[in-house]
Amino acid sequence: MDWAKLAGDARDMRAKVAAQFPGRNPWDLKFAPGGLMDIEFATQTLQLRHAPEKPSVLSTNTIAALKLLSGAGALGAADADVLIAAANLQHALTQVLRIALDGPLDVGAATPGLKALLTRAGGVDQFAGLQKLLAERQTRARGAFERVLA
Asked: What is the pLDDT of residue 1?
């Protein structure tokens, strides 16, 4: 398999998605840089690369697949940890937002109750801390995405 072509194709597809659906802020959890789309692209591309030799890396669950890829030596432990932490946080926040809203969060319009739910889902004490944690995890996930698809 030509890794350079596969990785290039994945980067190109992600860029096309980003052009059509730009993540306008960190709360656009699916499309923001370092969001769920980046994590899924990295995971699926690694599965395509390694599954022919190591079919045990296949899973339809992104977090499970990342663990399998790491365990098989197809993804470094540090990048796996970064991607898993970002996915876990964003999945937890997505569940709250799907129930509460029809689209991405507008922080300025969010009620104190919604902010409290999100804060609890993020496992932190204050909403400002959640915003900082989300930004950090997305930044680190975007870096892992770029390393994985280099």
From this structure: 75
